[in-house]
Structures are given as C-alpha cells and as structure tokens.
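lol ok so funny story. i was supposed to be doing the assay writeup but got distracted and ended up predicting the structure for this chain instead. priorities right. anyway since i did it might as well share w the group, maybe its usefull for someone
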Amino acid sequence: MLLEKKKILIMGIRNKWSIAWGVAKSAQENGAELIFTYSPMEKQEKIEEFIKEIPNAKAYPCDVAEDSSIQECLEKIKNTHGKIDGILHSIAHANTEDLRNDFIFTTRSGFAHASDISAYSLIAISRIAQQIQLLKENASIVALTYYGSEKSVEGYNIMGVAKAALESSIQYLAKDLGKAGIRINAISAGPIKTLSAKGIKDFGSILDIVEKRAPLHRNVTTKEVGDTASFLFSYMASAITGEVIHVDNGFSTVGV
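and the output, tada:
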C-alpha cells in the first residue's frame, strides 16, 4: 500500500461530501493513519460521529485565522501522535455576498478575509509545522485549488483570486520547504457537488458544461481527487514539488 505506516493530517474536514473526506478515504485505503482538524465553527460531536468510520482517527479544533490556535493545535498533534508524513490543506472561506455579487463589489474586508483563510493559512501552517518540527523528512503537503484561479468563472469571484494567491504561494513555499526535503503541491479539482459549492451561483450549470466539454465527458469524483492526493503523499511522487496538478477530466486543456 502506498501510504502504509504513514501519518496524514487532514486539515479542514467538514462532512462526508467534502473533497477532504475523499482524500481521507483514499489515504485510509492505502494504509495511512489519519488525524483531522476542523474549524471551531463546526460541532465537535458531528465531526467525531462521521470520522468513526476510520479506526483510531482523532479530530482537533483549529482556528486558522489565529497563529496561536494553529500552533496549539499542531503541538497537541505532535505530542499525541509524533511526527507526521503529510498534511492536506482543505481550508477556504469567503463571505456569501462576495460570492453572490459581481466581483467589482468585493469589499476590502471580504478580500482580506478570503485571502487570509484560503491562502495565508497555508503559509502559516507550513511555517509553524516547520518550527515545531512536526513534519518528517520527505513529508508532503497537498492543498486543494480550482480552475477559477486561472480563468474567471461565473460566481467564483473573490475565491478565484484567493486560490490564485494560494497557488503562487505554493511555488515560493516549495523553495523554502525543499531545504528540509519537504514537498508541497496543489490539486486543481474539477467542480464537485460539495456543501461549499452551494455558495457558487448556478453551480449546476458548471457541472453540465464540464460534462459536455471535458475530453472525458464526465465530472470528477472525490475518490479520484483523493487517489491523486494519495499519490502525492507517497514516495512515488518524490520528485514532484511546487506543482498544480489538474484532476478535471481534461477540462482545463480545452479552448474555445
């Protein structure tokens, strides 16, 4: 199994329909021990109930808007589980009005909020994980992004700008983390019907367009994204870092 005896931290779990859960299930199937973090805005009982499917999985609250919360959470994980082999960054948020309104009406505070939670959190997590020596040598960090970072997608708005910042950050982080032998990459997943996707206006039509125009003529699944993450966490991706890998049935390769 690709991830046998590896410990993978899934940051930002919300529910069973999320991409993060698809990554968790794939990692489990490939032999990984799993640890989760969730936003304090989520109910602890709800998170603990559905992660019962994964033997011995533990979940910890983490407010990524506060460096002190990230540090406390990661230190607790290290003290409990020891050093880990990988981190999934599945964390993003934007104010509803900044998604629903035209992009030109994005508020200053909304821009700062989306960028902080969706992009800067990856930098903070990477830095603190390094400072407390949470990551083993040859560890791998994987973040989730979307095509709206490259092209304007109706209804994605400020989140597209935040994801563009996330992707650029990955290139710079790859250089810094590489000094310690740590890799960092992103998966640009095709649209998937998740709870977060409900915030995007006319999301159903995006799914229809992808199915029609993607070379493979279908939409991607959380399992397919999860399997790509398992590959990136594994030794088989040991020479890959600083990359954004599209898992979208080829949609991003199609022109007019």
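The longest helix spans residues 108-131. The mean pLDDT is 94.
back to the writeup now i swear
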